[in-house]
Write a structure and sequence with these properties.
single chain, 109 residues, mainly beta, four-stranded antiparallel β-sheet, three-stranded antiparallel β-sheet
């Protein structure tokens, strides 16, 4: 596991209801960071049903769900849980922190 955090954006660039994607500096894993009512959550930017970017889909800030545009699988951004078929496996969740106005993430697997 790496102790190196990856810069995503500044807090001013990730407003409530928005998402940003970064690539972990060590593993190259794509990580989507979601701002849900001021709380930040980070998931692997990959649907567990098919290898497709979740960030290409719709982030519903009202329900806290992201929908894969490919086949309609939905995931809870708070914990990565799969909410409907065709996905049954959760998406990997990663730590996210704010330091000096910067949003940082890391692949902690």
């Amino acid at each position: 596991m790496s102790d190196i955090w990856t810069f995503v954006c500044t807090t001013a660039e990730l407003l409530p209801g928005e998402m940003k994607v970064a690539f972990d500096d060590i593993t190259g894993t794509p990580i989507a960071v979601f701002n849900l009512d001021g709380m930040l959550y980070a998931l692997e930017d990959q649907c567990t049903h098919e290898d497709f970017e979740l960030s290409a889909g719709h982030f519903d800030a009202g329900s806290g769900e992201v929908e894969c545009v490919l086949h309609g699988a939905k995931f809870d951004v708070r914990d990565g849980k799969a909410l409907c078929a065709p996905a049954y496996e959760p998406v990997a969740k990663f730590p996210v922190k704010v330091e000096n106005g910067q949003v940082l993430v890391r692949d902690d697997r």
